[in-house]
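User: Structure please.
Assistant: Input sequence and predicted structure:
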Amino acid sequence: MRRATNNIWLGATALVLPFVASVSASRIDAIIIDHNCVDIFAVPESYVLPAASLRVLMRHASVGQGIIWGLDCLAGDHPTNSACSCFPAGKYDRDKWVFEARLGDWRDKVDDLVAQTASRLDDFDVFMMKFCYIDALGDSHPDWEYFRGRMEKLEADYPGKTFVWWTIPLTRDGQPGTDLFNAQMRSYCAAHGKVLFDIADIECHEADDTRLVNASGNEIISANYTKEIHAGHLNPTGRVRVASAFWYLMARVAGWNPCSCVDHNDTADSDPGGESFELTLGPKASWSQGHEGYDPNLPGYHVVGEIASVTLRAKTDRLPCKLVLAIQTSPEMAPMLENFTLIGPHTKLSGEPFNPDAGMMYFRKIGCSDEWVAVPQVRTDAYLRFEIIRDEVHITFQPKAIELLRAECTISWIDWYR
């Protein structure tokens, strides 16, 4: 597939691209893309096209070439590579995202973004640049005030455009100068409502969310994301990881807010269709007596089943902040769940919710692998909460779990082990 957008650009010739409505950088809350934002399958289908429609200019160096490869992988350009085999051609089309390599030291790179923005303002909606790890070797690092001042001026001069701030990527050795600059970047962006792509945080966390540092406490890139001994160029796994986070970034810039939801008690903001979900009973599940279908007073569903399952998915983009699955278990026994599992395409929560020695565990699939990886650092009570109310077990879906229901999820349970 052609990639006319992967230019080695050292001049100032402008590209002419179709018009896309501008996206303003002004916002109250910061958008932080970090290691919690690397699942491309979490991006709702309804935001893939809006994200792809944004006209993006990204000025970069060698690590950027790896990100390009990762984006091509997600676009279906490398189907024979095992890291890319599950991505069909055409879905994640990013032809309007222009990546251009440029040379120079850290100051040249900052000045280049300023010049490129001024000369190509009408061609793009989103502007960004990243430093290379060589810009912060040892104790050296770009001058924070120089960088911050020019980024602030860009945002002030061009309020109709979005500017993305980046941390500096990591090496296998770890660099104190990188950590110092990145700490300033994270603190400032979070406090001032910036859009931050924290590539360093993405690189220093393993798939199970373990954070990696050297003996001095400096962040290092995982050996699972690079084949290099000292440097930090990305391997296929790392490329797909960072490229997936880039899609997450663009969906957020396009307006997706994974933390947003609608209060079901707010009639002015409720779904005019009434029911936001579709529940399908499995062969051993049935509706509770007098409660067939959605109960807005719960709000959710009443079902009966001892060892049973249902499937559940959202029918609308405007999802409520709360959903309850109320399960009646064995009629001759006290209500109980000895096992509960929710499985989505790439996320699973499973375990023994009422056993304090076991509890629930969060799992995720990595890329195109079919293997589930446990992530014990994730708090499952941020997804699901369990309580026994009269003759039912109530499973309350928190906003994070409701977000999973944008794709069909299978929910299964065992009331008592037999």
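The radius of gyration is 24 Å.
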